[in-house]
Amino acid sequence: MEGSGTLALPLDQNFQSIALAGTNLTATIGSGFSVGRINGSAAAEHVVLDRNVAAVALGDGDDSLTLGLPDQTGVVYDGTFDGGAGNDVLRFASTGRVTIGGTVAGFVSMSLASNELVVEGTLDLAGDMLTFAGNDAQTLRVGLTGVVNGTIDMGAGDDLLELGLGATLNGTVSGGDGYDTDTVALAGARTLTAGVLPASSVCRPRDRVA
Ligand SMILES: [Ca+2]
After folding, report:
1. Mind listing the pLDDT tens digit for each residue in 106-127?
2. What is the pLDDT of residues 80-101, one digit of tens each?
3. What does R_g of the chain's alpha carbons equal in angstroms?
């Protein structure tokens, strides 16, 4: 799809792939159909999807991706969502808890309508720098299979970072402004690399298992 403007696409068939060349896309996928992948170009593309897809790669340019609908809850995004180079923005519109089950990388800003994000897949790749938008208190919960790379700033507000059993924190997570708390669930010995947690935070080990 080429040209400027926004294409509103209520799906009435499955698409293996949609290629955008500077065109914005608002796709209503619904429950009966699927989209394999959406590829952007070097130009800026703004994509709005009502649900999970297998893969989105927006390429260069200052792109944005909005996922979900406000009334959704407990949504798991198990696709691969790549903002590519540029100042790319990711928005999760659901007011209920959102879980990353796949991979999210290449975005510089993320906004969470629910203020709560669970990572069971991978958030960011090495070298990514991601800031949580908004001033509300936000929770980042890294679960059993969750991996967080890159440099993450949770922004303003009294934020909470929870590292569950088995969670992998390779990068750094900063609480930003506010009174921030990190909760680390421990089962036996646990070593965190120096500097991965914000210096201003309070670390409260819990769920300690002998
Ligand atoms: Ca692009």
Report:
1. 999 999 999 999 999 999 999 9
2. 999 999 999 999 999 999 999 9
3. 18
pLDDT 10s digits, 42-75 = 999 999 999 999 999 999 999 999 999 999 999 9
Ligand 1 centre to CA of 23 (Å) is 9
CB 69 within 8 A of CB 96: no
Work out how many domains the chain is built from and give that number. 2
Residue ranges making up the domain that contains 102:
1-114
Q: Verify that 96 and 153 share a domain, yes or no.
A: no
pLDDT of 2 reads 73
Under 8 Å between Cβ of 139 and 155: no
Distance of CA 59 from the midpoint of ligand 1 (Å) = 4
If you measure from the C-alpha of residue 160 to the centroid of ligand 1, how many angstroms do you get, rounded to a whole number? Answer: 32
In whole angstroms, give the CA distance from residue 90 to residue 1.
Answer: 22
Distance 22 CA to ligand 1 centre (A): 7
Do 48 and 103 lie in one domain? The reply is yes
Q: Greatest CA separation found in the chain?
A: 61
Q: Are residue 86 and residue 8 in the same domain, yes or no?
A: yes
CA of 4 relative to ligand 1 center, distance in Å: 13
| 156 lies in the same domain as 187 | yes
